[in-house]
Amino acid sequence: MPAISFSAFTKTVSPRLNFTPTRTLLYTRKMSTTPNAVIPQAKRMFDGATHKLDVWSIFTPANVPADCINLGQGFMNWAPPDWIRAESHGSMDHDIMTNHYSHPRGRPRLLKAISKHYSPQFENIVARGKDLTNEEILVTAGANCGMFAALTAHCAKPVFVPLHPPTGEGIKHGGDWTLNMDEFAAAFTPKTKAVIINTPHNPVGKVFTKEELEQIAKVCIENNVLVLADEVYDCMVYDGKKHFRIATLPGMWERTLTVGSGGKSFACTGWRVGWLIGPPQLTAATLAAHSRIVFCTNSPMQEAVAIGLEKAAEHKFFEEQVAAYEERRDILCSYFDQIGLSYTKPEGSYFLLVDISPVKVPEGYPIVETCKGRGKDFEFCWWLCQELKVVGIPPSEFYSEEHVNIGERFARFAFCKDPELLHAAGKRLLKLKEYL
C-alpha cells in the first residue's frame, strides 16, 4: 500500500458536511421574544439516522472534487431519445392547456398510453378482456411521490426486513440474495398495514422469481395487507430473466399498487413523472392524498412520457435499451474483475453492488464529519471520491439501523452512463489494487 500524506487535505468542503446535528427537543410550547428562537421538530425526526445529512447531499457534485466521475446517483449522462424530445417540445405550443394544471389523476393522453402499454403485462387484466381503466391508474409526481401518497393514505410507521447476501468469494448474482420468509412472516403484527417490495431491486439487482413472489403473496393475503410493488426498473431485466408482477398472482390484484416510472424508463429522471396501477378502491384513496401533496404532475412532461409509451415499440426502444445497459454493466464488471473485488452481478436495474471489505482505507485518513460513525462504506466512499476521483454510494444508507452491518461491506456504483465514462472511471478504479 503506498504511503500517503494527509497534510494536503486542506480543501474547503461545504459547511453542511462538517455540521454535527444537534437534538433540540422542546416538549412544551413557550412564548419567545428571541428573534432566532428554535422551532421544535417532530420527535420522529430524531429516530435512528433520520436527523443525519442524507447520502445524496454528502456525495452531490457540489461537495466532491470537480474532476470526479459520478457513478453514485442513478441518473444518465445522455438525453432522452430525440423522437420523444422533438415531439414533446411542441406540445406546449400546440395545446395551451399543457402549460396549466392537469387533472390530479393524470392527463388523458398519458392515462391512455399507460393503459395500452401495461394492460397486456397483467394476466388478470388480459383475462377479463378489458384494458386498464382510468380509475385503475394514477399519474404521480415521480414514483417516490406516488409511494409517499400511497403510504400517507394507508399506513404508518415502517418495519424493515432485509435481503441477506450470499456467503463465499467470487461473483454473485442478484438472485443469490434471499429473503428469509420466517423473518418476513414474523415481522407482521395486528397493526401491519402494508408491504413494500422492490423488484428489480435497487441496490442488489435481484429480480424476484415467481416462486418467491408467491411465498410473499401468501403471507400478505393471510395478514390482509396492502402491497406496494416498486417495479420502476421493470424494463431493465438482463440475461433472459423474466420480470414477474406480484399483482398478477391470485388474490393480489385487489390489494396491490404497482409503481412505475417514466424517468427510469426513458432516461429522463428530472421530469418526475411516475404512476400507480391498481384497483379503484386503492387508487382513489391515494389520489386524495396525492392531490393534497402536489395537486397534479408536471403537465408538459406527462405529454412527453405519453409519446414515449406510444412509440416505444415502433422504435424498438426497450429492446435496444436493455442491450445497451447489459453492455454497460459488463464494462464496469470487467474492471472489478481486474481489481479482484467480488460483486453482485445485477439481474435488473442499473446498479452494481461491490464487496469493498478487502479494501484497506489508509489508517487515519481524514473523513468529513457527516460520514464519521456511519460505517465503513461511508468512509470508503468519501476516501474514494477524494483520492481516486470516483463517486460511489454507501448502501448502508438504505438500511434501518439494526441492519446497517449488512450494507456497510459494499459500495454501489451506477452504470447508467455512456461507455466512455465507464471506461474512464474503471481506469481510475484499477488503483484500488494498491489498497488490497
UniProtKB/TrEMBL annotation:
All residue ranges annotated as the Aminotransferase class I/classII large domain in the record: 67-422
Entry-linked Pfam families: Aminotran_1_2
Presence of the UniProt keyword Transferase in the record: yes
Keywords for the protein's UniProt record, in alphabetical order: Aminotransferase, Pyridoxal phosphate, Transferase
Assigned EC number: 2.6.1.7
InterPro entries associated with the record: Aminotransferase_I/II_large (IPR004839), Kynurenine-oxoglutarate_AT (IPR051326), PyrdxlP-dep_Trfase (IPR015424), PyrdxlP-dep_Trfase_major (IPR015421), PyrdxlP-dep_Trfase_small (IPR015422)
Example GO biological process: kynurenine metabolic process
One term under GO cellular component: mitochondrion
Gene Ontology MF term list: kynurenine-oxoglutarate transaminase activity; pyridoxal phosphate binding
Keyword set includes Transferase: yes
Pathway it works in: Amino-acid degradation; L-kynurenine degradation; kynurenate from L-kynurenine: step 1/2
Alphabetical list of SUPFAM superfamilies matching this protein: PLP-dependent transferases (SSF53383)
Requisite cofactors: pyridoxal 5'-phosphate
EC class: transferase
Quaternary structure and partners: Homodimer.
Similarity field: Belongs to the class-I pyridoxal-phosphate-dependent aminotransferase family.
Record protein name field: kynurenine--oxoglutarate transaminase
